[in-house]
Design brief:
single chain, alpha+beta, 2 domains, 5-stranded mixed beta sheet, 13 helices, 40% helix
């Protein structure tokens, strides 16, 4: 008992949104202290970690043959245990100024439907990185709490959390999940759709970072106005092999994103079909809340509103909902017991 109280005193409990695209860390009493890309740069010869986070992301697509960049989190779950452990360890030590005696309690957001093997991998990685106790919470539940939804009330709350690797959809009532579904569709698949569209139409190969820039600058799920927006893009001509610049417009990107956006819509409709009538009535009144980076795709709320005839609300800060919600759970033991996986 004495040891536990001392450990609690010298540690800073934290919540982690271990995302495919970014890892966010919330420290109790301090708020969000870290938001870094989930990317690791390694030596191809030795396997040694060279760089992690923002520095590693800057190397994406620009590394020489002896260096490779990897994303150790794929589709919201660990695809490379060793490098996930290294990444977590680096982030935790950076937050604690490399004080190895700090052993915090950690709560981590995971996708709905995560397998027991994947759960164990997440927990083991966190423990290996210095955690004292590790709890898991479904990202959709954490996002709902972070968005300020009254999940403890006996009424229906619907959240759609569109991350980098997965879209988590959940209907929550009385702090319990009535229906949940995670699909492997998110920001990365949108980027991939843009890359494939440009490759198919223009025989031009662009990189991940360029595709992401296109999505952010002129990407949309719905034609918002008659004015057309365009941007210059650069890549490699697949016929000549020579670098090339072309101009594309927002209507083309709208077309390229049709399939990913439709998949999200179909999953939302499936969730609504599986929701009990009483809770459906609540959702008609409250609407559906969008969280995650994908919620920021221009016109997505308008598109979903037209297709479902329901109110669609984008969370105040969609990117941080999961980590803020997980952070709030750290402060409330009663909620933690109800919502942890």
């Amino acid at each position: 008992m004495f040891i536990n109280s001392v450990m609690g005193w010298i540690s800073s409990d934290m919540a982690i949104d271990l995302g495919t695209a970014n890892t966010l860390v919330y420290v109790k009493g301090k708020g969000i202290v870290l938001n870094e890309p989930s990317v690791v740069a390694i030596s191809s010869k030795t396997g040694k970690v060279l760089s992690i986070g923002a520095d590693a992301k800057r190397m994406l697509g620009r590394t020489p043959g002896n260096v490779s960049t990897i994303r150790p989190i794929k589709d919201g779950v660990i695809s490379d245990f060793d490098y996930t452990k290294e990444m977590l360890k680096y982030f935790i030590q950076r937050i604690h100024n490399r004080k190895s005696f700090m052993r915090p309690r950690i709560i981590i957001g995971v996708p709905s439907g995560i397998t027991q093997v994947e759960q164990r991998a997440v927990k083991d990685a966190a423990v290996s990185s210095g955690a004292r106790d590790v709890y898991l919470i479904e990202e959709s539940v954490a996002a709902a709490i972070g968005a300020g939804m009254p999940i403890s009330d006996p009424s229906g709350n619907m959240i759609v959390d569109i991350g980098g690797g997965t879209t988590d959809i959940a209907v929550i009532s009385m702090a319990g999940i009535v229906y949940s579904k995670a699909i492997r569709m998110g920001g990365d698949k949108m980027d991939e759709a843009i890359i494939n569209y440009i490759k198919r139409k223009y025989n031009l190969l662009i990189g991940e970072i360029m595709a992401e820039s296109i999505k952010i600058d002129i990407g949309s799920a719905y034609k918002m106005d008659s004015e057309r927006h365009s941007m210059e893009i650069r890549g490699r001509d697949l016929v000549s092999g020579i670098p090339k610049m072309i101009i594309i417009d927002d209507e083309e990107i709208l077309e390229s994103l049709t399939d990913p956006v439709r998949q999200i819509l179909d999953s939302i409709k499936l969730a609504l079909e599986n929701t009990p009538p009483e809770l459906s009535a609540d959702i008609v009144g409250k609407g559906i809340v969008l969280a995650g980076g994908g919620a920021m795709l221009k016109g997505l709320d308008v598109f979903l509103r037209e297709e479902t005839s329901l109110p669609i609300i984008i969370a105040e800060d969609p990117l941080t909902c999961v980590v803020l919600g997980a952070g709030k759970v750290l402060d409330d033991e009663n909620i933690l017991e109800k919502v942890m996986v």
